Amino acid sequence: MIRGGDESSDWLDVYVPVGALEHAGIAYKEGRPFFRSAVMDDWLAAIGTETFKAASFSLGVIGFEVSGCTDASAMAGRIPEERDIGYLLPKGEVLHYRAANT
Asked: Which of 17, 50, 89, 90 is 20 to 30 A from 56, alpha carbon to alpha carbon?
């Protein structure tokens, strides 16, 4: 976790080596750009959802090398229709997850 001086600077980065996915037998190529696993993405989204219950956050992103790719202010409260990555975006007290779909 990277903790900054204000509310917009807190980051939680989780990295799973591709070799670990192979060793676990999880498909991660799936014909999509970049290395990605729908199973892994959904698992990370579930972790993010549980984390949100204890420590709310303004945006979560899930995918290959997504750290710093966007921030909550750039999202303006909206998740894109076409997504190369997954998003966890709160609206009030409810966290919404939209998986990558391209």
From this structure: 17
For tokens 């420590």, the residue is: 55
**H/E run at residue 96:** strand 94-98
What are 30-74's pLDDT values in tens digits? 665 556 678 888 989 999 999 899 888 888 998 877 878 888 888
The domain limits of the chain are 7-98
Cβ atoms of 95 and 89 closer than 8 Å = yes
Distances (CA, A) of 18 to 2, 27, 67: 23, 10, 17
Q: Distance (Å, rounded) from C-alpha 60 to C-alpha 88?
A: 5
